[in-house]
Amino acid sequence: MGAGPKGMFVAAVASGSSAARAKLRPGDIVTAFDDMPVATPRELALAVADHPTGGVVRLRIWHDGRLARIRVRLPLRDWVS
Questions:
Q1: Number of CB atoms found within 10 A of residue 17's CB
Q2: What pTM, to 2 d.p., does this model score?
Q3: Residue 64 to residues 26, 29, 36, 46: CA-CA distances in angstroms?
Q4: 81: exposed, middle or buried (Cβ count in 10 Å: 0-12, 13-18, 19+)
């Protein structure tokens, strides 16, 4: 039996978030962010932090047992001083 896809397991998706609008669901596994492989939550967080806010990125995910590609608009970050 294989180990399954390597990536970041999605445990929860906030209602109304960019991820929810892109149809990302709990149980999905994110395997790439803009064609860059990700295997851990830290790798995904660093990739998101390095990308401009408000931009659209491509995610490669395992969803319902098959590979899918989705587009997600990164939200604008609110900075509080």
A1: 13
A2: 0.81
A3: 11, 10, 22, 26
A4: exposed
User: For 8-61, what is each residue's pLDDT tens digit?
Assistant: 999 999 998 888 998 899 999 999 999 999 998 899 889 988 888 888 999 999
How is residue 6 written in tokens? 């390597």
| Contacts (Cβ under 8 Å, ≥6 apart) of 78 | none
Tokens of 25: 């669901």
Calpha distance 46→56 (Å, rounded): 16
Structural domains for the chain = 8-73 (2.30.42.10)
